[in-house]
Each structure stands twice: as structure tokens, then as C-alpha cells.
Amino acid sequence: MDLDRSPLARPFPELPTIEGMTLRTVRAGYKAWDRADLTLIELIQDTAVAGVFTRSACASSEVEMGREQLRQGKARALVVNAGNSNAFTGYRGREAVEQIVAQVVEALDCEREEVFVSSTGVIGVPLPRDIARAGVAAALQAPPCGWEDAAAAIGTTDTFTKGAGASAMVGETRVEFAGIVKGSGMIAPDMATMLGYVFTDARIAPELLQEMLSSANAATFSCITVDGDTSTSDTVLAFATGRADHPPIRSWDDAGADAVYAALLSVCRELAQLVVRDGEGARKFIAVSVSGAQSDDSARRVGLSIANSPLVKTAIAGGDANWGRVVMAVGKAGEPADRDRLSIGFGGVWAARDGQPLADYDEAPVSRHLQGEEITIEVDLGLGAGRATVWTCDLTHGYIAINADYRS
Amino acid sequence: MDLDRSPLARPFPELPTIEGMTLRTVRAGYKAWDRADLTLIELIQDTAVAGVFTRSACASSEVEMGREQLRQGKARALVVNAGNSNAFTGYRGREAVEQIVAQVVEALDCEREEVFVSSTGVIGVPLPRDIARAGVAAALQAPPCGWEDAAAAIGTTDTFTKGAGASAMVGETRVEFAGIVKGSGMIAPDMATMLGYVFTDARIAPELLQEMLSSANAATFSCITVDGDTSTSDTVLAFATGRADHPPIRSWDDAGADAVYAALLSVCRELAQLVVRDGEGARKFIAVSVSGAQSDDSARRVGLSIANSPLVKTAIAGGDANWGRVVMAVGKAGEPADRDRLSIGFGGVWAARDGQPLADYDEAPVSRHLQGEEITIEVDLGLGAGRATVWTCDLTHGYIAINADYRS
């Protein structure tokens, strides 16, 4: 099936070159398609790595191994297979990953723990080992490529390539960030997985990089949803080659730590939002801002309850300022809420305050706002200082068409 | 908007007369429609009552008052308003309910705690007190009606009337059960609420009735989902008029208690399944059976994770035996699960066992099963003895059309 480019797509940005890494892609042929589907990223010695993975109890072998490998905090290579997620394939799936790791270890003369593998695509079919072996061998010999080529090669049913960059000053030294991402929840028939990768030349200790990534992830990738369906393979990895010329950053108190975190956060936020912009059938980008919660975490859960509600998402698709459905979604979130303190608005205009519709509520500006492509929903719980913003897209006939009308 | 009758509809059954109660309906005119929309059910003195309500933190005044009234365990009347849920209407909503209660208390010379009120329909508009007053006055004078009339009058965007009956032997005495229900989650634009009512002439103490209803509810109404969107007004009430000629049943050890519970459970299960059969856009009825969980409750949560997954529901809509999506939904449920012990089947045929696709899996009988209207999904977690069955419907273009294409 051919998917139209999302109307919410963004052009691929100019991204900086990151010293100490090389991108390569080849067509391994995991599916019968005419495009690169294996990406090999070589990283200089002592590159720091951090990662966050799906919480699925049915995670793939790639995720399972990645978690173990992270304990070392060092990376020399990343291999991404597109077209087959290798999830739910038992010992055969694990063997396929081990084979790829062994092949790269031999070629780069590095350690087993330094080679990370991700796979995305159909669930339940072991990754074919012969295709993987030939693909990795070819990738090791392939010419370097640019960011957009790599962003395209890791995609499956993505309708546009997604990348984001940033920079930060550490003392007098400018450090660069570049990231790519694919997916939007469980995207299309039999396809799965959000994969995100951020690279920087900053010198940063793996333990601190992990703290920064976990924190940035909580405010970005963990705040997006397309359909509430968590993949078995979701992975975000951050790599720091350490080639920038500044004193190493080992703790939050070191010079430049805040600036580096801000840049990492900004790249993660942009990548996360790009995933939502490629949500299946998406026609509107929705930001749900929750304030007045008992904690930030509680605000995030209320926001996700709203963002995952099919009735809220279809109302936005229909341009309907149906704040009753937002009340419903707040009520079912399982978080502290008091009906009589709850306020709800769209596009900055309150429709209801303190548990009651506003007597002078003017729906006209709200209706105009809902005709646009960028929608905001504001919720104030009136209980505390906790706040969070969550991003999602609307639920349209396109979602049903992609997931029900075509056989996988 | 006119909704077509659900293809999964069932004819309204013959229901027994329950001694000690009278049904009446009138057109109050909560909406501009030509149908009865106010139901008044009068119950004989000392009728026992039990109830379960929505867990929404934004519950309506009706729900709030119902919870308080239940402590007495006695009922003389039930009033159901259709067309306006009176939810999220602050003190004005509460006043409207108080007014209805006071009016019935005066007419029947009973206590405030004995008059139960439910309302269903648009959220955020206070129930109009003048319309309610005239409606209740007319209902008090109206001629008695039958079960199907009452089932129709409590409905909103339901596409068919829903009822179920059962009987049980208490010693030599036959006791009768009749129940009616409306809704299917948050049904249609601005509409809300599942309301279910079960009536029996059995002599049963309110405390035991409450225990039985809570238990039956956990295995029936709490095991259905259409879109995962919990209403602000969900209510199930059970009334026992005590007119049957048998010794009172006060505990689970008393003669007839088990038979009465079995009949109550059967009525609740049938009513719950009828709600799913009227799910928005439903074309297929899906039973998800989970076994091998660490507890029954854990099995139910895994079942609901599958039944609420838009990717699973669209796969069934498309007749696609996409068991990878079931793996995903198990994995994200947040319940104990072990990928390598997980087995998944459709229509009684295993597609994957112990974490791997079956080598000799024959998709042909599964595809035939998925062409039908009654679908089963079997999941075995391989961990323990916990089991549960959950019921839902598929997710189709009809759902989007009903909720996004029409303005409320």
C-alpha cells in the first residue's frame, strides 16, 4: 500500500556533521522493495552511549540485548534493520542479533557490548540470517552517506524523513547535536516501532548522558501518543563521540552541562513531535497542556488519557469543540481530579471553568481554531502546581483505512 | 443523525412480570424528538437496592447522590432522564436532581434516600427544571407500560432496545429476573453513559444483593469495552421487590442464594454483551479469553488491553489474523507476562505458542473464522491459573463517521 505524505510533514532540516562518526546505508533486501533498509553507523572509540527502551513485557531480542549492553556505556557501532522487527521470534531471533553483533565486532575489532542493533517491521518472522550477513558485509564497505539517507533507510511506513539538530556552548566550545527518528506508535499493518537516535560530539560521561536522556525522554518521547499502542521494539539511543574540544562533562554541576541538556531536550522534543506529525491518518497536530495537577507525572497521565481518547480525537478531527469529552477523559484517568475545580479550553479560550460551562462562552473563535492544523487543548485541574504537555494527532478515516482496509 | 440498526442486534426478549413494581414512561421533551424520554419505575415498599457506579472523578450529581442513597439499601422509585446527562453542571445540576427527588417523595410518601435518579445525554447542560417537573408529574399519572417501552425510553443513540431475563428456584419457589440496559461506552456525539437496571421479585437483603451485584458486575459490565472511554454517568442498579414467597435470603449460605446469584449473573452478562453489540460502528462481536495469568484480575486487565487496542480492533475489522498486534497489546498491559511463554490463537486455533509462531500454523481456518460476526481471541500467558473473558467490538469507519463526521 502506498501512503500519502502526511499533510503535517516538515522538510528535512540541515543537520551538522558530528565528528567521530560515519553513516552508511545499503539495501539488504529485508522486504521486496527498492530502497536502502540496513543502516550501519560507525562510532569512534570511547563514544558514550545512553538509552531508553519500550516497557513492553514482550520486548524484542534487540531491546533485551540493548538493555544489557548499556551497562558498559560505550558504543562503536549501531545497526538498524528496517522491514522486519524480529520481535516474538524466540531463540532464532536472538541468534540473528548475535550474528550481526559478532560480524561487526570482528570487522571493527571492538567488544560485543559496543555494538547496538535495532530492528523494525513485521512481528513474528525471525530476521533472515543470510540476508543480514550479506547486508552487514556490504554496509561495512559502503561509502559514507548523509543524515537524510540514514533517516530514510531506518523508516518503514513513514511518509516523510524526520531529523532535528541543535547546538550548545560549553565554555568557548560549540558542540553539535543531530538526531533522526522513524515511526509513530505501531504504525501500519504488521509494522511496529519508534526508533530514535541522537548524536553529539560533546564530551560527556555515559552515566550523565543516561541521566540526561532519561529526563529528556520523560518530557518528550514519553509524552507522545498516536494510538496508545506501545510497540515491542521502541528504542531511543544517544551517542556522544567526545570529539569536541572542551573539558569533560561528568556531572550536572560541570560547565556546559545545562546547555548540553537543553540542546538534547530540544532535539528529542522536535523528533518526538515529528513522529506525531506522521501519525497514521493524522490531519491535525494536537498539544494537550495540563496544569494544576498534584504533580508533573499526574499531569502527564491526565494529558495522555485525553490524548488517547478516541472520542476526543474524533471530535478534533470533526472540528467539534466537544469539551464534555475532555471532562470524560479527565474523569477516567485515574488521577486526582475534582470536578468542581476543573477548567477546559481550546486554543487559549476557556469553555468551562470550575466545573461549569462559562455563561458567556463564545464558541466562534474556538471553532476557527479547530479548523486549523495546530490545535491546543488546555486543562487546569485546580489542585496543585503539576504541569505537562502531551502531543498527539486526530483520529480519522485514514487510520481505519491504513489498519483495517488493507491486509498485511 | 440517524443511525442504522446494528448488524449485531438481537430481538427484544420476552421478559417476566416482576411483582411489586410498575413501569411508566412519558415524553418530557428533553430534546426535540417525538419519543418517550422520561421513565418512572415505582417499587413496592421495602424493595432492596444495590448499585455500582462509574469510577470517573468527574461523575454526575446523579451518581454522587446515588452513592449516598445506597447506604440505606431501600428503594421506592427510579427516574431515568434521556437526552441530557446533567453531568458537569455544578450546583444547578444538583438542584435539578434534588427537585425530582422531592417531587417523587411527596407523591409516594417515601424517604429521600429511596428515590434514585439517572440521566444520560449531553454533558454540560443543566437538566431543565421546568421540563423535569412537568415530566415527572405526567409520569406519576401515566398508564403502566411494558419492558420494551421502558428499554426504548432510557435509550439515547442506541440502535436497538436491550433486555434480558432469567429465573431461579429458591426451594420450591420460582423467582424472576428482568433487566434493561442502554448505551455502549460514550456512545455518540455529546452522548454518554451506560445505564443498566435489573429487577427481581426475590426476597434478598440489600447487603447481600450489593455483594452479588458487585461480584456479577466485575465479571460482566466491567469486562466490556467499546472505545475505552468511561462515561461520567455509568450506573447499574439492582432492585429486589421481595414479593416472591420464599424465606428471606440474607447470606451466601441461605437456601437459594447460589441460584439467585447465577440468575443475576446471567442477566448482567447478557445485558453487558448487548451493549457491545450496539457499539458504535460495530460489525463484529469479539470475545477475548485470557488464561494462564497470575490472577483473574490480571487476566482481565490483559484482556482489556487487547480489547481496547485500536490496532487489534482494526485488524479484526479487516479480517486480518494479525497476532503480532495481540503480542503488542499483551506487552503493553503492564501486567506480568513472559514473552517466551505466551500463546495466541483465533477461533480456537493457535497461531503462536510459547513465544514463537507455530511452524505448521494453517491460517485458512482462522481466516474463515475472522470472516464471521462472532470472533474469539485466545491468549494463554503460561504463568498461573488466572483467567477472564472480555467482550468488545471491532473498530470501523462507522465509529469515525459517527464521532467525527457529524457535529454534535
Automatic annotation (TrEMBL), chains A, B:
Pathway: Amino-acid biosynthesis; L-arginine biosynthesis; L-ornithine and N-acetyl-L-glutamate from L-glutamate and N(2)-acetyl-L-ornithine (cyclic): step 1/1; Amino-acid biosynthesis; L-arginine biosynthesis; N(2)-acetyl-L-ornithine from L-glutamate: step 1/4. Its EC number is 2.3.1.35, 2.3.1.1. The keyword Transferase applies. Keywords: Acyltransferase, Amino-acid biosynthesis, Arginine biosynthesis, Autocatalytic cleavage, Cytoplasm, Multifunctional enzyme, Transferase. Substrate binds at residues 156, 182, 193, 280, 403, 408. The record marks 120-121 as: Involved in the stabilization of negative charge on the oxyanion by the formation of the oxyanion hole. The active site is at residue 193. It holds the Pfam family ArgJ. The record marks 192-193 as: Cleavage. Belongs to the ArgJ family. Heterotetramer of two alpha and two beta chains. Catalyzes two activities which are involved in the cyclic version of arginine biosynthesis: the synthesis of N-acetylglutamate from glutamate and acetyl-CoA as the acetyl donor, and of ornithine by transacetylation between N(2)-acetylornithine and glutamate. HAMAP family: ArgJ (MF_01106). This is Arginine biosynthesis bifunctional protein ArgJ. The gene is argJ.
